[in-house]
Amino acid sequence: MSIPTRAAVVESGGAPFTLCDVELDEPGPHEAVVRMVATGLCHTDLGVASGGLPFPLPGVLGHEGAGVVEAVGPAVTGVAPGDHVVLSFTSCGDCRNCRSGHPAYCATWLPLNLIGGRRADGTGTISRGGEELGGHFFGQSSFAERALVDQRSLVKVDPEVPLASIAPLGCGVQTGVGAVWNVLKPVTGSTVVVLGAGAVGLSAVMAAAHTPATNIVAVDRVAERLSLARELGATHTVNAAEAGLGEALAGITGGQGADGVVETTGNVGVLRQGVDALAARGTLVVVGAPPFGTEVALDVNGLLGGKQIVGLTLGDAETQTFIPALVRLVKEGRLPLHRLISTYPFADIDQAVRDMGAGKAIKPVLTF
Asked: Which of 204, 306, 346, 360 ranks highest by number of CB atoms within 10 Å?
């Protein structure tokens, strides 16, 4: 028996979000129905809504959900009705990467999360007037008052923490934090550079502040975001509209360069500058995602000093342990995520989109 709810539907690439009545499929054995309390708005949602990725439209997006479990399928374990949950990406659980604790590199990650629009068995999860819509986005499609969620997207969290304050943990925050903690792993004396002071970049700054890194450098073109980066733990800031990255870093590091760089902008010109600014044996983590097929030119000889360029999806995080640890940091005030969040009623989703695009909101969170 289908479950009626209200969702924000994108009718076609480039169209606005339209609130309308839809029906959720009956939950399968490994699925749960979650009443949404809040959901973050991410650049990935906007990229898909623009038609930049081959997700089936009309469809329901949303992949930073947080809510309360209402019902579970018979094979669901670990959560029960009434539990508070943060929703993240899904994965198969059986491939080599899933079994080794790296579900963000699941062999079936793209169709399960980003471009498939259906369950792994090919069945749909959301319909409208008897017509199937694209759904199952990151195993959740959380731009709706209720979501049909894959079990592996569910992370049980502390019910004492307000869900609107932790919804972004499911994607953007764990991506920025994971870039620092899971890949760069700074040691005493390290210089960490974060290119772009949006939600992912500022999450990386906050994460770096919990490491022995000596220099934490935030780079952006917006003075207000650089000021916030200072308040969140950056020891230095560089306004890219006023100074060249290489020259600025040479001054900060005494000519040594950066030990670690987190590139969040998706701009290949910025990526190239980050690679050139690396110290010997330094690592650049590619987080920002330009359109498919985008290439970047690199000086091959410049890489021979042991430089590494590492691509990253969702912080390479094992969500069942990583997200609850972040929730605890939020609860204890050690991860001041509220400094990034602007809340909007669900009905104002298009205003949130506009504010995000204009740079007025770092991390919009829709509330229900």
From this structure: 204
Residue-wise pLDDT for 131-164, tens only, equals 999 999 999 999 999 999 999 999 999 999 999 9
Residue 181 DSSP class = I
The residues, ordered by sequence, that sit 6+ positions from 38 with a Cβ below 8 Å of its Cβ are 65, 66, 67, 163, 164, 167, 343, 365, 366, 367, 368
Q: Could you give the 3-state DSSP secondary structure of residue 367?
A: strand
Residues 6 or more apart in contact with residue 308 via CB below 8 angstroms: 281, 282, 283, 284
Angle at 104 between CA 212 and CA 160, to 5 degrees: 70
- How far CA 90 is from CA of 98, 109, 263, 352, in Å, comes to 10, 8, 24, 26
- The pLDDT of residue 213: 97
Strands 31-40 and 65-72, bridge-based pairing = antiparallel
Whole-angstrom Cα distance, residue 325 to residue 334?
11
